[in-house]
């Protein structure tokens, strides 16, 4: 009896392991498939010029998705990142064009580094506001970030009465003429925004996997009460993830304003949806406690390649939205399937050990 059941159990374990491996590699497989599809059906898809443009688009979504990954892993959600992008872009545009005018007949002008520092501070401050609402006032993350979404978007509109800040070339006299280089410059033939993404991505992955802070983020998302009882400062962890998400959104606002040499208050509209899609597609669980920065970046590439490829094929923007929705739903369904397979594999392992 035992001799016949052992091979069966071994076969089931082998098939379960193969299926689990496929599920874990789903994002990379999806990326390969969309690249192959569009390389065949979209003209000039793999041209050098298009790859550069596409990499810039991917970088924008990847920044937001990295910040979103930390938030979702901790058990939250951040709907405000798109509006933070718009507001931070407008702040950058205002500082480049006008500086700060205290109203005494003189103004304070800033160089590019100071402008970026101020803009990043604005993004982090909005993230801190989200953290305060969620941890101190016990507002649900969905509602808190929905509220700051409207606040940030309204503030962006008010800053210019809904108009664009054009011609952000900067002034050599104040050292702000290098602002456009952030979005249009290259280092060793690679766009500056890609180098920035590499730095942020590596730093985020290191934090997630190699530091106590990263372990605490996963612990809070896995079981907040247990994490608190074990000594994890849950409030500080939540403040950090929302502030980091705001930081990433501020970087995107700076990059877009620099690339366009203009700032518009509607910039970043619905960007939060693409960020959530990339994180979920990359294996981040919406229930918290599980996710990988590397998977999220690959997920951002899938979303970016999908968007640019559909545009090059002439697919309607309305159908593009439908397809993205299908991708998000499919990612969640596959994630749930992976959790079931992992649970089944754990039970089988326990059964084998018990024998």
Automatic annotation (TrEMBL):
CDD domains: TM_PBP1_transp_AraH_like. It is a multi-pass membrane protein. It is found in: Cell membrane. Pfam families: BPD_transp_2. GO terms for cellular component: plasma membrane. InterPro entries: ABC_transp_permease (IPR001851). GO terms for molecular function: transmembrane transporter activity. The chain crosses the membrane at residues 27-46, 58-77, 83-100, 112-134, 187-208, 239-262. Its main location: membrane. Keywords: Cell inner membrane, Cell membrane, Membrane, Transmembrane, Transmembrane helix, Transport. This is ABC transporter permease. It comes from Paracoccus onubensis. The lineage of its organism: Bacteria, Pseudomonadati, Pseudomonadota, Alphaproteobacteria, Rhodobacterales.
């Amino acid at each position: 009896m035992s001799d016949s059941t052992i091979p069966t159990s071994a076969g089931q374990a082998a098939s379960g392991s193969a299926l689990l491996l496929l599920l874990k590699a789903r994002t990379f497989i999806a990326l390969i498939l969309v690249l192959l599809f569009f390389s065949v059906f979209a003209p000039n898809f793999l041209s050098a010029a298009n790859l550069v443009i596409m990499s810039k688009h991917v970088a924008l979504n990847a920044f937001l998705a990295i910040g979103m990954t930390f938030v979702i892993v901790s058990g939250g959600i951040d709907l405000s990142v798109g509006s933070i992008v718009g507001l931070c872009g407008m702040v950058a545009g205002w500082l480049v064009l006008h500086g700060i005018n205290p109203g005494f007949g003189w103004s304070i002008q800033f160089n590019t580094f100071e402008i970026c520092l101020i803009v990043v501070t604005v993004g982090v401050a909005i993230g801190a506001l989200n953290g305060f609402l969620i941890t101190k006032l016990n507002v649900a993350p969905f509602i808190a970030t929905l509220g700051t979404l409207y606040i940030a978007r309204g503030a962006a509109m008010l800053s210019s009465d809904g108009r664009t800040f054009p011609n952000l070339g900067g002034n050599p006299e104040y050292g702000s003429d290098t602002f456009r280089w952030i979005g249009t410059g290259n280092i060793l033939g690679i766009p500056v925004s890609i180098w920035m993404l590499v730095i942020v991505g590596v730093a985020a992955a290191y934090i997630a996997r190699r530091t106590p802070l990263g372990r605490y983020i996963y612990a809070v998302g896995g079981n907040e009460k247990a994490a608190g009882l074990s000594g994890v400062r849950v409030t500080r962890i939540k403040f950090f993830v929302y502030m980091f998400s705001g930081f990433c959104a501020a970087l995107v606002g700076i990059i877009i304003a620099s690339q366009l040499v203009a700032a518009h208050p509607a910039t970043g509209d619905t960007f939060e949806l693409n960020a959530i899609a990339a994180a979920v597609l990359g294996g981040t669980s919406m229930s918290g406690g599980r996710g990988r920065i590397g998977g999220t970046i690959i997920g951002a590439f899938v979303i970016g390649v999908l968007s640019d490829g559909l545009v090059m094929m002439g697919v309607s923007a309305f159908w593009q939205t439908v397809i993205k929705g299908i991708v998000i739903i499919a990612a969640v369904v596959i994630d749930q399937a992976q959790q079931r397979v992992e649970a089944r594999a754990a039970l089988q392992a326990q059964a084998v050990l018990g024998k």
